[in-house]
Amino acid sequence: MLKQGLQQKLVQKLSPLQIQTIKLLELPTLELEQRIKKELEENPVLDEANDRDDADEQGGNISLSEYSSDEMIPSYKLYSNNSGKDLKPEYNTFSVKESFHQSLLTQLGYSNMTPDEKSIARFIIGSLDDDGYLRRELDILVDDIAFRQGIETNEAELERILKKIQEFEPVGIGARNLQECLVLQINAENTSVQQKLAKTILEDYFQEFTKKHYSRIVSKLGITEEQLKEAIELIVRLNPRPGGSVDDSYSEQAQQVVPDFLLEMKDGELIMSMPRFSVPELKVNKRYADLLMSSSGQGRAGKEAATFVKQKLDSAKWFIEAIKQRHNTLQNTMNAIIEFQREFFIDGDETKLKPMVLKNIAEKTGLDISTISRVVNCKYIQTHFGIYPLKYFFSEGLMTEAGEEVSTREIKIILAESIDSENKQSPLTDEELVSVLQQKGYKVARRTVAKYREQLNIPIARLRKEL
Fold first, then answer.
1. Would strands 261-266 and 380-383 be described as parallel, antiparallel, or unpaired?
2. Is 149:174 a contact under the CB 8 Å cutoff?
3. Predicted confidence (pLDDT) per residue in 324-361, tens digit
4. Under the phi-then-psi rule, with left for phi > 0, alpha for psi from -120 to 50, and beta for the rest, what region is 303?
5. Could you give the CA distance from residue 374 to residue 391 in angstroms, rounded to a whole number?
6. What are φ and ψ of residue 277, in 5° steps?
7. What Å distances lie between residue 7 and 3, 4, 10, 416, CA to CA?
8. Which residues are registered as beta bridge partners of 386?
9. 3-state helix, strand, coil in the chain (%, to 5)
């Protein structure tokens, strides 16, 4: 038996302005500039004027408030003065380290491979993980390349192309495991007695080496402990992560970075500003505004034209208002972060970073956590002691025995210092590190010590042992 009834649901729909604002919030400065240029190209109602007075004299651009049709024109002025006062007409760009993927693709462009080989090589490069390793089996890649690139290949050809990629910089890239990565690097070292011995150890006694069974290596190779020590010193200088380490708090992007915020110390006060970026003044194109006024009520074609122009006017209104809201939201969020981390921003001392999560800043600004997350994403601040991604300032916290909350970053620094100063012939175990931290007033569980040690890319005690 069918039942009919009414069901009431509360559905929250985002307005076009809210959607536009959300999209713009995530964009860093350079991408925002590109987005504005794209909007200018796609919306004929918008024009840019570098000189406001000249534009007014020419009559090419006017503000929407000059039109007063209540039926067709909303009561807002479509004009945004984005220039503002700026003592620095040019912003600085900072080159954040280039990703190894981009570097490899650049090197691929100079290689003498055929077009099909380059397509396969690009696919292999795109399959490398953040450490620079190829973790996927070649037979799986063969199928993927056939399906996605439409190129028939085989494992032998992939192996040959991979070997060519392994000749690229940084040395060790494209390895399928740690042993292959280190062998590639040792082969690139200048030939010497130490280099030859190190190569033999890596190729023939890798298991013994990783397990620190040094006496077994000495016995099998018939060498002295001093010779082994010299070879190991050469090995430990190699890079086990040629793709580049990824910090647990943020990831550096391969791009030119324009800081979204500038923090300066003036007369003992922290002054935050948002550097001027190349956002043009946006005005209504007079030709389309005139069309709107003249075509209203003049037949079907005229109404369609007027509707088109009104849609573009609405789009322009939302876009400009979204830019303004983006600016205000970024400004309020950054001010809240600076206030929360004031002690750090005075001199850049990492130990002064307080535990801070998105919720802390959301509460201070009255904004949603999701909004703070979008603001923080891919944004940078230039300070008097360096340039930082906003994600850098966020971390979890732990309690000291005295009941004070400290940043996990502070504990990691102390952990790294403790390991650095340990007796390398008898390295500290995780349990012993717990005791060391407790002596310094930090109450941390053994599993937490192990977690932080791994995030710092520090091996277990047995693998830190030296002769």
1. parallel
2. no
3. 888 899 999 999 999 999 999 998 887 788 888 888 89
4. alpha
5. 11
6. -120, 170
7. 12, 10, 10, 60
8. 383
9. 50, 10, 40
Angle, CA of 129, 114 and 134, to the nearest 5°: 15
* Side chain identity at residue 291, one-letter code: L
Answer yes or no: are the C-beta atoms of 157 and 120 closer than 8 Å.
Answer: yes
- Cα–Cα distance for residue pair 410/413, rounded to 1 Å: 5
Q: For the whole model, what pTM was predicted?
A: 0.52
Return the H-helix or E-strand segment holding 406: strand 405-407
Say if residues 27 and 38 touch (Cβ distance below 8 Å).
Answer: no
As given in the structure block, the two tokens for residue 271 are: 């002054």
Q: Integer distance in angstroms from the first to the last C-alpha of the chain?
A: 84
Name the token pair of 463: 């693998």
* Angstrom distance (rounded) from CA 125 to CA 32: 29
Which of 12-26, 90-104, 211-225 is predicted most confidently? 211-225
* Secondary structure (DSSP) of 420-436: HTS-TTSPPPHHHHHHH
* Residue 49 three-state SS: strand
Amino acid at 190: N
The CB density around residue 184, as the number of other CB atoms within 10 Å, is 21
Rounded CA-CA distance 291/283 in Å is 16
| DSSP state, residue 395 | B
Here the tokens at position 111 are: 């290689």
The two tokens of residue 144 are 């993927």
Enumerate residues 6+ apart whose C-beta is below 8 A from 265: 271, 346, 384
- From CA 7, how far away is CA 124, in angstroms rounded? 53
CA distance 258 to 275: 9
Indicate the residue type of 27: L
Query: How large is the angle between the packed helices 225-236 and 178-187, nearest 10 degrees?
Result: 100
CA pair distance 48, 78, nearest whole angstrom = 12
> Contact, 236 vs 249, CB < 8 A?
no
